Amino acid sequence: YLKLAEGSSLDSTQLRHFLSEKLPQYMVPSFFVMLDEFPLTVSGKVDRRALPAPSEGLKKSQRFPRDDIERKLSIIWSEILHHSNFNLDDDYFSVGGNSISAVSVITQINQHFGSAFSVAWVFMHTTIETQAEILKAKAFSCHFEPILLLNKGNNRKPIFFVHPGMGGADSYTALAKHFWVEQTVYGVDSYNLYSHQAFINSIDDLAGYYVEQILKVQAQGPYYLAGWSLGGVLAYEMGLQLMSKGHAVKALFLLDPYFFSEKQSAVLLRAFDELMKFQNKLAEKEMQDAPQEFVELLRAVNGVQSKAMYNYRLQPYAEKVILFKAQQAEPMPGCSPKISALLEDCFLDPSNGLAAYVSQLTVYPIQEGHSQLLAKEEYLQFIAKIISEHMK
User: Fold this and answer.
1) DSSP class per residue in 240-251
2) pLDDT tens for residues 93-108?
3) CB atoms within 10 A of CB 199
4) Strands laid side by side in the 358-369 sheet
5) Coil, strand or helix at 339
6) pTM for this structure?
């Protein structure tokens, strides 16, 4: 709700653009309502009950595609979302888009424009106008670039979130919005999923590749690394490799990764086909509207990375590690009793296998299942708050 200075004019597009440059996206209002005067109570405070509904606010100016690139993007959106007449400043996720349909959008954009964007690009550039600006300026590489800026801050302590096993850095876009404006947040995107190159099939080698890429963005420490699920395993190994190069790693923030003993891994590897069948069923259910070729690639990547995770062996870690531990078990339909029991033992371990290797371990329990750790607002706020406190 706002009151304009006398003689001035403003529409929601201008105001939203201005605020987007000053605030993280989650703090930009969805609606703007212009008032002649604010209604007040008898005590002189704003009478919130008397405020008009948002639909009575500033009308959105009609801004339709003006050139071939904007028109092509509008066509792509229309084909995926099954409706049309998008404004240039319509937010993709406010007009029917979601993370699954974003896979189809980015696939078509890459095919038409010769780009190599990952799904996270749609989360970072959510309007036709901002997408077109990058495409018109050719401000993109035709080759895979794993380090993505999820939140542009002005501090000198960025944090890097490493992709999980069944996805890319887009998994962290909602979490990145919960950090204050000063905090720089990077995502480390999935090489195996998006590079279109031969898979890297070990945790050590994949972590080594990501360390090389991070050093191009931040040449000197201290470093802060984070990761959910497989991303936590990768972040752990990346921390070890950075320290072996003489860099300071101030903290690792691990979102419920699993580390397996040699004995546990032997059992999991013997039942590998069974586990992949179970995991792929879950993925196919979630990705049923995604392009089939992407679903098949995701299956293959999951197989390679799961096997790499089972084969990874923890090494001692002397610096600070913060573990966010999921507290709710999740059903495992279709798994044999032996595998279900092994996975339940891993779940019941209060440190996810870290206690014997990490000397400075802090555990924060979260009353949620592993797959839903980043799905609820309250947990996103809690995780961002704890990470921010440890980075002070």
Assistant:
1) HHHHHTT--EEE
2) 878 888 888 999 999 9
3) 15
4) 147-151, 185-188, 159-162, 223-228, 249-255, 317-328, 358-369
5) helix
6) 0.78
Query: Residue 31 has which token pair?
Result: 């609606």
Phi first, then psi, for residue 182 (nearest 5°) are -75, -20
Nearest to 320 by CA among 231, 223, 245: 223
- The mean predicted confidence, pLDDT, of the chain is 87
pLDDT digits (tens, 9 = 90+) for 218-256: 999 899 999 999 999 999 999 999 999 999 999 999 999
Closest alpha carbon to 222 in 242, 196, 237: 242
DSSP assignment of 252-290 equals: EEEES-----HHHHHHHHHTHHHHHHHHHHHHHHHTTTS
Query: The tokens of 40 are what?
Result: 């007040």
Residues of the chain predicted below pLDDT 50: 56-58
User: Would you say how long the chain is, in residues?
Assistant: 392
Sequence-ordered list of residues with C-beta below 8 angstroms from that of 42, at least 6 positions apart, any chain: none
CA distances from 77 to 63, 132, 315 (A): 16, 13, 47
